[in-house]
Every structure is written in C-alpha cells, then in structure tokens.
Amino acid sequence: MKKKFKGIFLLLLASALFTACASKGDRGGQNQKNENYTTSSKSDYAMTEEASMEMEDTAYDSDNAKVDEGGATLETNRKIIRNVSLGLETQDFEEVVAKIEAEIASLGGYAENINMSDLLSSTNRYCYITARIPAAKLDSFVSKVGETGNVVNKNMSAEDVTVNYVDMESHVKVLKTEQERLIALLEKADELEAIILLEQRLTEVRYELESYESRLRTYDNLIDYSTVSISIQEVIRYTPQVDNESTWQKMKAGLSDTLYDIVDGFNDFLIWIVSNIPYFVFWGVVIVVACLVIKRKRKKRRERSLRQEKNE
Asked: DSSP assignment, residue 237?
C-alpha cells in the first residue's frame, strides 16, 4: 500500500513539475522541453501507459507562427487590440449625438458610457461617448463619425497581444490535461492521504485554469470589440483647418479669428450688461438713497452748528 501511495505522490509531483515547465516562456524550445519531460517521466516515475503519454502541445516560433511536424511554419491570425479617440465639433449637437448612437447600434456595437453636460446651455453643450465597435467595422464607423462634424483631433493605437494570448492558450491546454489526469487518479485512489493530496493539487489547477480563461475572455472582448472614445463639442463657429494653406490664407484666417473674437467678446459684454441691469438699478437706488441720507445729515449738522454760533 505504501508503494502505491508513493507512486501516486510521485505522479502528482511529476504532473506539477510538468506544469511548471510549461509555464516558462521560451516558445522556440517548448517541443524540446516536452520531449525531455516525457523521457524523464518514463524513466524516473514509471508511469502507466495512459499517464505517461506525451503532451502534444502546439509549439510556436519567435514570430508566434505554428510549427508542424515537418518544421514548416503556418500563418496565424494576429491578436490586435485597437483603440481610437476622436474630437468632434458640431453646430447641431442633438442631431449629431443621435446619429452616432444610431450608427453604433446599426454596426452591432454598444455604448459603454455616455456623459452629457451643460444641457441647459444653448451653445456650449458637450458629450463624451465610449463605444465598443466590432473590430471588422471600426474603420467604417470612424469614417462615418468624421462626416457628422468637424474633426479637431484623432488618435489611433494598436497593441499586438499575440505573444501573451498564445502563451495563455498554452497554459490552459496544459492545465486542462493535468486536471483530467488528476480526476482520473482521484477516482482510483483509496488512501485518505492520497485523496487529500490529489484534491489539493486539483484545487490549485482549477484556480489557475479559471484565472487564465478569464484573462483570455478579457482579451477576446478587447480584440473583437475596439474601443472608440468620442468627444463632441457644440460650437457656433468651426475651428478653421489651415495646415495645408498658403501663408496669406493663414494670415487671413488668423485675422478673421481675431475679428470674430472681438465681436464675440463685445456681444458677450453687451449681453452681460443687459442681463445685469436689475442689479445696476438696485445698487443705483441704494447708492442714491445713501447719498441723500448722508447729505441730509450733513445739512442738519451745519444748521445745528449755525444755531450754536448765534446763541453764543
């Protein structure tokens, strides 16, 4: 019975060592590691025919291309996470926001976050939208959003996560194989200590497996649905685009902007004056009344002084 328990313990140790070996990140030498492990497990632990079968993991070269038995490389799909940020000016705020929301829904995406502010303002409203768009339709969506207003800034980024993705897939395969072997051994075990050891290792394997699968699902979501951040600002006048124009045209545009700012500033000042007339009237009345009261008191003081002088 001790020999049987010892054999189970050694098999469990070999399984843990195999998982640790698979977790080390040299893709080019992974086939060699698996072959070394198989030879070691057969010679050192005398595993049964089923438990000693070599794990046929897929190996990857330095460019993350699959390697077949003949050594030829096969092309694989890259795992790319794409993000886009857009700044938009519009003179028709409500219509543009509605069009963008409708476009998101029509492409099979969804709005992850919508934040609108200054809704009571007539010209200074703005909206921030964070949308998730199917990666295959991202370029089409960005193009259509750009047609709804004046694009003032645009940023695009792409992150290649193929290496990490393939690495996690490899971990998942190894852990699933170990889990199956542990379950098979647990069904055959009849010693309490062996059962406890197997269940402990099985719990660890399941925890690691769930962690890797959760990270893979997160990657899948980020890869399949690109993130687009849109800032929509309502304006009265679009920001002119003069990067490709001549010096005279740039000077003309700059002068036009200055004159517009002066007129706009005067209009704002005039609006402020008219809007605050009630305050001016109120404080004007207060000041006049105060002046009259002060003047009256001074007059009384003078009359009192004159009477005193006459009496003397």
From this structure: S
Distance of CA 56 to the CA centre of its chain: 37
| CA geometry: angle 126, 130, 131, nearest 5 deg | 125
Q: Write the secondary structure of 252-305 as one string of H (helix), E (strand) and C (coil).
A: HHHHHHHHHHHHHHHHHHHHHHHHCHHHHHHHHHHHHHHHHHHHHHHHHHHHHH
Q: Minimal CA–CA distance to 144: which of 112, 111, 102, 115?
A: 102
pLDDT tens-digit series, residues 187-212:
988 889 889 999 999 999 999 999 99
| Alpha helix segments (H runs only) across 189-276 | 192-224, 247-275
Please tell me the pTM assigned to this model. Answer: 0.59
The band of 245, judged by pLDDT with boundaries at 50, 70 and 90, is low
Which residues, in sequence order, are CB contacts of 234 under 8 Å at separation 6+? 89, 90, 91, 93, 121, 123, 124, 125, 126
Backbone angles phi, psi at 191, to 5 degrees: -95, 135
Beta-carbon contacts of 296 under 8 Å, excluding residues fewer than 6 positions away, are: none
Contacts of 209 (CB under 8 A, 6+ apart): 172, 175, 176, 179
Which residues make beta-bridge pairs with 82?
158
Q: What is the mean pLDDT of residues 27-36?
A: 39
Query: Residue 160, SS3?
Result: strand
